[in-house]
Amino acid sequence: MKAAGLVLMLALAGCAPKRPPAGVQGDPERGKIALTQYACQSCHLVPGVPGSQVYVGRPLVGMAGRKVLAGGLPNDQANLARWIRDPQAIDPETAMPNMGVSERDALDMSAYLLSQ
Amino acid sequence: MLSNRRRLIVKTAVLTLVAAGASAGAAGLALLYGGWYNIGATAQHFPFVYTVLEEGMKYSVRRHAQDIKVPRLGGEQQLRLGAAVYRDKCAQCHGGPGFAQSTIGMSMQPIPGPLIDATQRWEARELYWVTKHGIKMSGMPAWEYHLREDELWAVVAFVTALPAMSARDYRAWTAPDAPQGGAK
Fold first, then answer.
1. Which residue of A45, A46, A52 to mutate against B (max B Cβ within 10 Å)?
2. Domain range holding B156?
3. Is the same domain home to B10 and B58?
4. Shortest Cα distance from A1 to chain B (angstroms)?
5. What domains are there in chain A, each with its CATH number?
6. What is the complex's ipTM, to 2 decimals?
7. What are B135's strand-pairing partners?
8. Nearest to A39 among B45, B101, B166 (CB)
9. Contact yes or no for B117 and A56 at CB 8 A
10. What pTM does this model have?
11. I need a surface site. Which of A15, A91, B154, B182 has the fewest CB within 10 A?
Protein backbone atom coordinates (compact mmCIF):
# COMPACT_ATOMS: atom_id res chain seq x y z
CA MET A 1 0.00 0.00 0.00
CA LYS A 2 2.75 2.40 1.00
CA ALA A 3 4.75 1.42 -2.08
CA ALA A 4 1.75 2.12 -4.33
CA GLY A 5 1.36 5.54 -2.73
CA LEU A 6 5.00 6.31 -3.31
CA VAL A 7 4.77 5.24 -6.96
CA LEU A 8 1.68 7.46 -7.40
CA MET A 9 3.46 10.42 -5.84
CA LEU A 10 6.46 9.94 -8.11
CA ALA A 11 4.18 9.65 -11.14
CA LEU A 12 2.39 12.87 -10.20
CA ALA A 13 5.71 14.60 -9.58
CA GLY A 14 6.69 13.64 -13.13
CA CYS A 15 3.66 15.53 -14.47
CA ALA A 16 4.34 18.69 -12.51
CA PRO A 17 6.37 21.42 -14.26
CA LYS A 18 10.07 21.24 -13.60
CA ARG A 19 11.43 23.67 -11.06
CA PRO A 20 13.27 26.61 -12.59
CA PRO A 21 16.96 26.75 -11.72
CA ALA A 22 17.98 28.92 -8.78
CA GLY A 23 17.91 32.65 -9.44
CA VAL A 24 15.27 32.45 -12.19
CA GLN A 25 12.46 34.93 -11.63
CA GLY A 26 8.90 34.93 -12.93
CA ASP A 27 6.11 32.40 -13.25
CA PRO A 28 6.97 29.51 -15.60
CA GLU A 29 3.38 28.20 -15.66
CA ARG A 30 2.06 31.54 -16.84
CA GLY A 31 4.99 31.85 -19.21
CA LYS A 32 4.08 28.59 -20.92
CA ILE A 33 0.66 29.98 -21.85
CA ALA A 34 2.15 33.37 -22.76
CA LEU A 35 4.48 31.63 -25.25
CA THR A 36 1.44 30.33 -27.13
CA GLN A 37 -0.28 33.71 -27.06
CA TYR A 38 2.64 35.38 -28.85
CA ALA A 39 2.76 32.62 -31.48
CA CYS A 40 6.23 31.37 -30.47
CA GLN A 41 5.25 27.81 -31.44
CA SER A 42 4.38 28.91 -34.96
CA CYS A 43 8.14 29.11 -35.75
CA HIS A 44 9.86 27.29 -32.84
CA LEU A 45 9.52 23.82 -31.39
CA VAL A 46 8.69 24.63 -27.76
CA PRO A 47 9.03 21.81 -25.20
CA GLY A 48 5.66 20.95 -23.69
CA VAL A 49 3.68 22.89 -26.32
CA PRO A 50 1.94 20.87 -29.05
CA GLY A 51 2.51 22.14 -32.57
CA SER A 52 3.83 21.40 -36.04
CA GLN A 53 7.39 20.27 -36.80
CA VAL A 54 8.67 23.76 -37.59
CA TYR A 55 12.27 24.83 -37.85
CA VAL A 56 11.85 28.45 -38.96
CA GLY A 57 13.36 29.46 -35.63
CA ARG A 58 15.65 27.31 -33.52
CA PRO A 59 14.05 24.65 -31.32
CA LEU A 60 13.74 26.05 -27.79
CA VAL A 61 14.83 22.89 -26.00
CA GLY A 62 17.57 22.90 -23.39
CA MET A 63 17.68 26.69 -23.12
CA ALA A 64 19.10 26.54 -19.60
CA GLY A 65 22.16 24.69 -20.85
CA ARG A 66 23.13 27.12 -23.61
CA LYS A 67 26.14 29.37 -23.33
CA VAL A 68 25.02 32.03 -25.80
CA LEU A 69 21.81 33.35 -27.34
CA ALA A 70 21.27 34.67 -30.86
CA GLY A 71 24.79 33.79 -31.90
CA GLY A 72 26.74 35.77 -29.31
CA LEU A 73 24.72 37.15 -26.43
CA PRO A 74 25.65 35.58 -23.05
CA ASN A 75 22.77 33.37 -21.97
CA ASP A 76 21.11 34.62 -18.81
CA GLN A 77 17.51 35.39 -17.99
CA ALA A 78 17.83 39.14 -18.46
CA ASN A 79 19.33 38.73 -21.94
CA LEU A 80 16.79 36.08 -22.91
CA ALA A 81 13.93 38.39 -21.91
CA ARG A 82 15.62 41.25 -23.76
CA TRP A 83 15.92 39.13 -26.92
CA ILE A 84 12.27 38.05 -26.67
CA ARG A 85 11.10 41.65 -26.32
CA ASP A 86 13.25 43.33 -28.98
CA PRO A 87 15.35 41.02 -31.15
CA GLN A 88 16.16 43.81 -33.64
CA ALA A 89 17.93 45.76 -30.90
CA ILE A 90 20.39 42.85 -30.64
CA ASP A 91 20.49 41.72 -34.29
CA PRO A 92 18.95 44.20 -36.75
CA GLU A 93 18.87 41.63 -39.55
CA THR A 94 17.26 38.78 -37.64
CA ALA A 95 14.15 37.23 -39.18
CA MET A 96 12.58 36.96 -35.73
CA PRO A 97 10.01 39.74 -35.49
CA ASN A 98 9.35 42.01 -32.54
CA MET A 99 6.14 40.50 -31.18
CA GLY A 100 5.36 43.37 -28.81
CA VAL A 101 5.89 41.24 -25.70
CA SER A 102 5.37 43.02 -22.37
CA GLU A 103 8.10 43.02 -19.73
CA ARG A 104 6.17 40.72 -17.40
CA ASP A 105 5.25 38.27 -20.17
CA ALA A 106 8.87 38.11 -21.38
CA LEU A 107 10.05 37.39 -17.83
CA ASP A 108 7.52 34.58 -17.41
CA MET A 109 8.31 33.16 -20.87
CA SER A 110 12.03 33.15 -20.10
CA ALA A 111 11.29 31.48 -16.76
CA TYR A 112 9.46 28.68 -18.54
CA LEU A 113 12.15 28.21 -21.19
CA LEU A 114 14.92 28.15 -18.59
CA SER A 115 13.09 25.52 -16.51
CA GLN A 116 12.71 23.04 -19.40
CA MET B 1 -31.00 -24.76 -34.34
CA LEU B 2 -28.46 -23.32 -31.96
CA SER B 3 -27.76 -25.15 -28.80
CA ASN B 4 -28.69 -23.45 -25.56
CA ARG B 5 -25.06 -22.79 -24.82
CA ARG B 6 -24.46 -21.16 -28.21
CA ARG B 7 -27.62 -19.09 -27.81
CA LEU B 8 -26.41 -17.83 -24.45
CA ILE B 9 -23.05 -16.82 -25.91
CA VAL B 10 -24.64 -14.92 -28.82
CA LYS B 11 -27.13 -13.25 -26.49
CA THR B 12 -24.36 -12.18 -24.11
CA ALA B 13 -22.21 -10.82 -26.93
CA VAL B 14 -25.08 -8.83 -28.46
CA LEU B 15 -26.22 -7.42 -25.12
CA THR B 16 -22.63 -6.48 -24.22
CA LEU B 17 -22.21 -4.62 -27.52
CA VAL B 18 -25.52 -2.81 -27.08
CA ALA B 19 -24.68 -1.87 -23.49
CA ALA B 20 -21.21 -0.65 -24.49
CA GLY B 21 -22.64 1.38 -27.38
CA ALA B 22 -25.33 2.89 -25.18
CA SER B 23 -22.90 3.87 -22.43
CA ALA B 24 -20.42 5.31 -24.95
CA GLY B 25 -23.25 7.33 -26.47
CA ALA B 26 -24.37 8.51 -23.04
CA ALA B 27 -20.80 9.51 -22.15
CA GLY B 28 -20.50 11.39 -25.44
CA LEU B 29 -23.76 13.25 -24.88
CA ALA B 30 -22.75 14.09 -21.31
CA LEU B 31 -19.45 15.50 -22.57
CA LEU B 32 -21.21 17.46 -25.32
CA TYR B 33 -24.02 18.95 -23.25
CA GLY B 34 -22.14 19.12 -19.97
CA GLY B 35 -19.82 21.74 -21.50
CA TRP B 36 -16.75 20.09 -19.94
CA TYR B 37 -14.68 20.37 -23.08
CA ASN B 38 -12.69 23.61 -22.82
CA ILE B 39 -13.33 25.43 -26.09
CA GLY B 40 -11.04 28.32 -25.05
CA ALA B 41 -8.22 29.10 -27.46
CA THR B 42 -5.69 29.49 -24.64
CA ALA B 43 -6.02 25.75 -23.90
CA GLN B 44 -3.76 23.77 -26.23
CA HIS B 45 -4.76 20.50 -27.88
CA PHE B 46 -3.35 17.24 -26.63
CA PRO B 47 -0.27 16.65 -28.84
CA PHE B 48 -1.89 13.50 -30.26
CA VAL B 49 -5.07 15.37 -31.26
CA TYR B 50 -3.04 18.15 -32.88
CA THR B 51 -0.99 15.68 -34.90
CA VAL B 52 -4.01 13.71 -36.11
CA LEU B 53 -5.84 16.88 -37.20
CA GLU B 54 -2.74 18.19 -38.97
CA GLU B 55 -2.09 14.89 -40.78
CA GLY B 56 -5.71 14.78 -41.91
CA MET B 57 -5.43 18.29 -43.29
CA LYS B 58 -2.21 17.43 -45.13
CA TYR B 59 -3.63 14.41 -46.93
CA SER B 60 -6.89 16.17 -47.74
CA VAL B 61 -5.04 19.08 -49.35
CA ARG B 62 -2.76 16.71 -51.26
CA ARG B 63 -5.67 14.79 -52.75
CA HIS B 64 -7.79 17.80 -53.61
CA ALA B 65 -4.92 19.68 -55.24
CA GLN B 66 -3.50 16.77 -57.25
CA ASP B 67 -4.99 17.74 -60.64
CA ILE B 68 -4.27 21.46 -60.55
CA LYS B 69 -2.07 22.72 -63.39
CA VAL B 70 0.50 25.26 -62.23
CA PRO B 71 1.20 28.17 -64.59
CA ARG B 72 4.65 29.73 -64.92
CA LEU B 73 5.44 31.50 -61.66
CA GLY B 74 7.92 34.13 -60.58
CA GLY B 75 7.92 36.98 -63.09
CA GLU B 76 8.74 40.43 -61.69
CA GLN B 77 5.27 41.78 -62.40
CA GLN B 78 3.62 38.78 -60.79
CA LEU B 79 5.79 38.99 -57.68
CA ARG B 80 4.87 42.66 -57.26
CA LEU B 81 1.20 41.83 -57.38
CA GLY B 82 1.75 38.87 -55.04
CA ALA B 83 3.62 41.06 -52.56
CA ALA B 84 0.71 43.49 -52.43
CA VAL B 85 -1.81 40.69 -51.92
CA TYR B 86 0.38 39.07 -49.27
CA ARG B 87 0.78 42.36 -47.42
CA ASP B 88 -2.97 43.09 -47.50
CA LYS B 89 -4.46 39.62 -46.92
CA CYS B 90 -1.88 37.22 -45.46
CA ALA B 91 0.72 38.98 -43.30
CA GLN B 92 -1.81 39.91 -40.58
CA CYS B 93 -2.04 36.25 -39.54
CA HIS B 94 1.09 34.63 -41.03
CA GLY B 95 3.72 37.36 -40.58
CA GLY B 96 6.78 37.43 -42.82
CA PRO B 97 10.59 37.59 -42.60
CA GLY B 98 11.21 39.97 -39.68
CA PHE B 99 7.55 40.99 -39.75
CA ALA B 100 5.23 40.04 -36.87
CA GLN B 101 1.67 39.00 -37.49
CA SER B 102 -0.94 41.18 -35.78
CA THR B 103 -2.42 40.17 -32.44
CA ILE B 104 -5.32 38.59 -34.36
CA GLY B 105 -2.97 36.01 -35.84
CA MET B 106 -0.81 35.59 -32.74
CA SER B 107 -3.44 34.14 -30.45
CA MET B 108 -5.40 31.95 -32.84
CA GLN B 109 -5.83 28.25 -32.17
CA PRO B 110 -4.53 26.53 -34.24
CA ILE B 111 -1.77 29.04 -34.81
CA PRO B 112 -1.45 30.18 -38.45
CA GLY B 113 1.88 28.74 -39.50
CA PRO B 114 4.73 30.84 -40.85
CA LEU B 115 4.84 30.76 -44.67
CA ILE B 116 8.59 31.32 -44.83
CA ASP B 117 9.01 27.53 -44.88
CA ALA B 118 5.85 26.79 -46.87
CA THR B 119 7.73 25.38 -49.86
CA GLN B 120 9.19 22.67 -47.63
CA ARG B 121 5.67 21.52 -46.75
CA TRP B 122 3.59 22.22 -49.83
CA GLU B 123 3.74 22.12 -53.61
CA ALA B 124 2.68 25.30 -55.45
CA ARG B 125 -0.61 23.69 -56.52
CA GLU B 126 -1.36 22.87 -52.88
CA LEU B 127 -0.64 26.43 -51.75
CA TYR B 128 -3.01 27.59 -54.48
CA TRP B 129 -5.72 25.19 -53.34
CA VAL B 130 -5.40 26.17 -49.66
CA THR B 131 -5.48 29.87 -50.55
CA LYS B 132 -8.48 29.44 -52.81
CA HIS B 133 -10.58 27.15 -50.61
CA GLY B 134 -9.37 27.85 -47.08
CA ILE B 135 -9.18 25.25 -44.30
CA LYS B 136 -12.26 24.36 -42.26
CA MET B 137 -12.13 24.96 -38.50
CA SER B 138 -8.68 26.51 -38.66
CA GLY B 139 -9.46 30.16 -39.29
CA MET B 140 -7.90 30.02 -42.78
CA PRO B 141 -10.38 31.84 -45.01
CA ALA B 142 -11.22 30.89 -48.58
CA TRP B 143 -10.18 33.56 -51.06
CA GLU B 144 -11.89 32.20 -54.17
CA TYR B 145 -14.60 34.87 -54.16
CA HIS B 146 -12.37 37.70 -52.93
CA LEU B 147 -9.25 37.45 -55.08
CA ARG B 148 -8.93 37.14 -58.83
CA GLU B 149 -7.36 34.07 -60.38
CA ASP B 150 -4.18 35.99 -61.27
CA GLU B 151 -4.00 37.35 -57.71
CA LEU B 152 -4.25 33.82 -56.27
CA TRP B 153 -1.35 32.61 -58.41
CA ALA B 154 0.61 35.81 -57.75
CA VAL B 155 0.42 35.32 -53.99
CA VAL B 156 1.46 31.68 -54.41
CA ALA B 157 4.45 32.90 -56.43
CA PHE B 158 5.33 35.39 -53.70
CA VAL B 159 5.07 32.73 -50.98
CA THR B 160 7.40 30.43 -52.92
CA ALA B 161 9.91 33.32 -53.03
CA LEU B 162 9.76 33.88 -49.24
CA PRO B 163 12.37 31.30 -48.13
CA ALA B 164 15.15 33.24 -49.86
CA MET B 165 13.92 36.66 -48.75
CA SER B 166 15.71 38.68 -46.04
CA ALA B 167 13.79 40.89 -43.64
CA ARG B 168 15.06 43.91 -45.56
CA ASP B 169 13.92 42.56 -48.95
CA TYR B 170 10.53 41.69 -47.47
CA ARG B 171 10.12 45.25 -46.21
CA ALA B 172 10.99 46.60 -49.65
CA TRP B 173 8.61 44.28 -51.49
CA THR B 174 5.71 45.04 -49.19
CA ALA B 175 6.31 48.78 -48.67
CA PRO B 176 2.96 50.58 -48.79
CA ASP B 177 4.17 53.25 -51.23
CA ALA B 178 5.83 50.87 -53.71
CA PRO B 179 4.03 50.61 -57.09
CA GLN B 180 1.49 47.84 -56.55
CA GLY B 181 3.34 47.02 -53.34
CA GLY B 182 6.42 45.87 -55.21
CA ALA B 183 10.04 46.84 -54.84
CA LYS B 184 12.68 48.35 -57.06
1. A52
2. 47-181
3. no
4. 32
5. 27-114 (1.10.760.10)
6. 0.77
7. B140
8. B101
9. yes
10. 0.82
11. A15
